[in-house]
Amino acid sequence: MKKRLACGAAALVAAALLTSCAKEPADPASLAITSIQKLNAAEPVVNDHAEDWQYSQLEPNFREYVELQESVLKTNVANYPRIKKVTDDRYLLFYQDAQTAKNIYYTSSTDLQEWEFGKKLFSSRNITVNGENDTLCFSTCDALVLQNGDIMAIASFRSGRNFRRTNEYNGLMMRISSDGGETWGEEQIIYKGSNWEPQILQLPSREIQVYFTHGGPKIQPQMEAGIPTSEMVPSSGTAIIRSYDNGQTWDPYVMEPPYAAWRVSQQYTHTKNGIKVFTDQMPCAILLNNTNTIALATESKFLEGNEEVYYITMAYSDDNWAQELGIDEEGPADKQENMYLGAAPYLKQFPSGETILSNNRQSKFQIRLGDSLAREFGDPINPLAGTGYWGSLEVIRSHTVVGTMAYARKLGDKNQNRIMISQNYLNHRIDVPEAEIAIDGSNTEWAAYTDALFVGSDSQAQVSVRPVQDEENVSFLLEVLDSDLNQGDAVELYLSAGEGETLDETSFRLTVEPDGTVETARFDGTDFAAVEDAAVKSAVTLQGTVGDGGEDTGYLAEVSIPRSLLGADGGTLRCHIVLHNQDTGAVPVEDKLGESRWNVPGEWMPLALG
């Protein structure tokens, strides 16, 4: 839980109750408080936040967090979830019903909240391997909506008992849907050889690449030599196969020994029994915005003593992996090895430039935001409640990324896995638009100005904040959704024209309560002291009743503050938000904008006025 640092023993300073404009107040019944899903609706400008990505932050939406259970998933051991956006109102979730390999399921949703019952996509079945009864199993499915509208799903398959005895029954299987996932075409084998964790990328040229953990070529000679499976030396690395015709043909087309695909990333770890062992596995690749650079995230596995330790490695290619690596060759040259402790990476990018890197760390799902070139990443957040493994990401809107992972749990000795889903909202610099707004407690004039900051990760209460400016004032619309309004609920909006490490005379605090109280205070060198200024205007509209225990909607406030009071003639205004929520009978919650500290303006979100 995020907590604001206390400022000594100082209490909140009583400040002036501000007056609203002369215009008649808004009728609460005629207004709809805007949810964050409907905001930040402007067409994104590619990489327009690349230069100040370090201020960007992700905020999970508490209200949208869900855990899918056995009744929907049709299995109590669901694992390896992958969510894909098909259209604006259709999503597909792929998962498997075993920790290693068995069946691949999928389900669909229109809102990421309610899901259809799970159905099998790749079904395990009986096979015969060298005269022995065996089972063909499936695992680690990935999918992609292709540029032609088809959905391509690819899963790893393996023989259950003979995985380490023959590569003939290991490989990659593909199915394609041309109707949004309602029906699927026949299974097609597109690669043979030991592998794990395929991931699909399509380039603007329409070339399709399937990245996967590449184990076949190193294990094949050991199989042929009859080495017992317990004595085999596994090795990995990442390789790809490509299709230029939407999956009809593949290059290289690998169906026989030595089962070598096009190697793109390998890191040497050690030599055992004369065999050089490599890592860089579980790949996820993206084409970076406005570049020819492919960024590839992999998991790098090492033995440190008797313990397996995992790191996240990043590799890059500006020439579409033109040079294949040899079987015992490290590469590529452009690489950042072992950047962070963690496993199971997934990589995406927002249109605005911020890259998004997820991984598992101590069974928790982490997400980091990074720069537009995926070279540098910030501190992680943990948006999912439970512990598990093998999570993934999907960008569904310009400011929203979905994170999902299996919640590996047991009740007694029975598995009760769930799939956790979190919708996480991007907060970043706002270029404040110019508009003259009447301060009347209505949001109707704000329809064209949707750029917003969001706080709402720690309880059901959430707030969005939108700014506009005119020649004399900077105005804000605060919209709070809160189903249980009580005394103690409030929003604090911190503003500063300074960018230092400490509060100064330009630091300003606005406090809004649902009962209509709006207080202003300026930092006086010791604490925030009341400010009275007739030019500050405000209006609050309440939808509900404070403290009656009934079901409420929330409240909204419009506030207009003179530039002269803020010291904001141009340039950048810094902004921080703290949301106080007091639900009936519950511990008070203090939610805030990211991990920024309320008393360090240099960490606050930039609002560009120039």
What do you see in this structure?
The protein is mainly beta. The chain has two domains: 28-49 and 429-608, Immunoglobulin-like, CATH 2.60.40; 60-427, Neuraminidase (6 Propeller). β40 and β41 form a beta hairpin. The model is unreliable at 1-22 (pLDDT under 50).
Short description:
With 610 residues, the protein is mostly beta strands.
How many domains would you count in the coordinates? 2
Q: What is the name of the CATH topology of the largest domain?
A: Neuraminidase
CATH architecture of the largest domain: 6 Propeller
Write down the overall geometry: elongated
What class, by secondary structure content? mainly beta
> Using DSSP, what is the number of strands?
42
CATH class of the largest domain: Mainly Beta
The overall pLDDT, averaged over residues, is 94
Helical residues, percent: under 10%
Uncertain stretches of 5 or more adjacent residues:
1-22
Question: What is the tally of helical segments?
Answer: 3
Give a quick account of the main beta sheet: strands, pairing sense, barrel closure.
8 strands, mixed
CA distance, first residue to last residue: 35 Å
Rg calculated over all Cα atoms: 27 Å
Proportion of residues in extended strands: 35-45%
